[in-house]
Amino acid sequence: MSKRNAVIVRDLIKIYKLGQVEVQALRGLNMNVRKGEMIALIGPSGSGKSTLLNIMGGLDRATAGSVRVFDTDITNLSPGELVGFRRGTVGHIFQNMNLIPTLTALENVELPMAALGIKEAERKRRCAELIEVVGLQERMNHKPGELSGGEQQRIALAAALANDPPLILADEPTGELDTENARIVVQYLRKINQELGKTVVMVTHDPSIARVADRILRMHDGVVQADVAPTTGEARPADYGEILRARITELDATLAGLDSQFKAGTITGDEYVERQTRLKNTMEVLREELHRLGIVH
Ligand SMILES: Nc1ncnc2c1ncn2[C@@H]1O[C@H](COP(=O)(O)OP(=O)(O)O)[C@@H](O)[C@H]1O
Ligand SMILES: [Mg+2]
Fold first, then answer.
1. Angle of CA points 26, 32, 38, to nearest 5°
2. For a pocket test of ligand 1, which of 13, 14, 16 has the largest count of ligand atoms closer than 8 A to its C-beta?
3. Are residues 256 and 216 in the same domain?
4. CB of 45 shorter than 6 A to ligand 1
5. Are residues 184 and 82 in the same domain?
6. One domain for residues 168 and 198
């Protein structure tokens, strides 16, 4: 196991059985997440993003393949061990606010700590600290119904941090928010990634949200189809376009090289098709990004 990786996923397969019908949600997925990295997972609905996150978080079990999270192969854990893993290692945030409506913001953040048997004084101290991290000191005695959607997600974020887990999984955390609140929530996710050193895997539909991450992984049909490094375009949009364009030109050259390798017989037809598909997918993502910036390549 590499010291650099927080998560290593190998040949992950997940098949759901619905009576006679089998749904293959993951089809041999491979990915790595480095320690301290923030990843955005994008891809069409039904491509397996939630399934992947749920397996990574110990909520669901793989059919085959392996998932290592901070040196533990979670595919081999017993149900009891999996509960322990989940409590200590993972903070999970979902699209639908998972706060308890009858509890205050503070009590919602405190709840997961009680499960670990942390003493009350320590709980209160940590809760106040976490609520400050998400900037809601003034709101901590409010119930979820008295908070905006964005504020509720920030409290959900604080609750996910309650037990100081090294890995934060966020499944469309901004899916139900307006643009402004979505931006604020993802900035807090980025903050806990950068300032608290948490490794973050976030699923999102929104390219402008995905760009906040260190790396974007695009899923399609149960596998990772492309891996893109978004440079932070915000500060220097012109340069960002240049970088994207240069990368596309580079990929074009690689593609041409691949053609000659195939013609010369130095790679097999399967290798050719596989590499070509991967290159073309990456180029497609880069072109979409250029298009989004309003630059035509
Ligand atoms: N509990 C389940 N039982 C049966 N099929 C499921 C279940 N969960 C997900 N699926 C199927 O697995 C595929 C991937 O789903 P999901 O991981 O939710 O995708 P995404 O989050 O990318 O939209 C879909 O075809 C979905 O219908
Ligand atoms: Mg989903």
1. 105
2. 16
3. no
4. yes
5. yes
6. yes
Interval 162-183: pLDDT, tens: 999 999 999 999 999 999 999 9
Render the burial of 239-256: b for 16+ CB within 10 Å, e for the rest: ebbebbeebbeeeeeeee
Q: Which amino acid, 4?
A: R
Nearest CA to ligand 1 atom 2: 16
Do 169 and 147 reside in the same domain of the chain? yes
Phi, psi of 6 (to 5 degrees): -85, -40
Is 22's C-beta closer than 6 angstroms to any atom of ligand 1? Answer: no
The predicted model gives 71-93 an average pLDDT of: 93
Q: Give the C-alpha separation, 134 to 184, whole Å.
A: 10
Range of the domain at 281: 237-292
Look-up: residue for tokens 């190998």? 10
Extract the tokens encoding 83: 């509960």
pLDDT digit string, tens, across residues 44-74: 999 999 999 999 999 999 999 999 999 899 9
pTM, 2 dp? 0.78
Measure Cα distances from 12 to 22, 69, 97, 121, 154 in Å: 16, 14, 28, 43, 31
Domain endpoint, select from 224, 247, 268: 224
- With CA atoms as reference, report the closest residue to 188 among 38, 292, 296: 38
DSSP per residue, 200-258: EEEE-S-HHHHTTSSEEEEEETTEEEEEE----TTT-HHHHHHHHHHHHHHHHHHHHHH
Count of domains forming the chain: 2
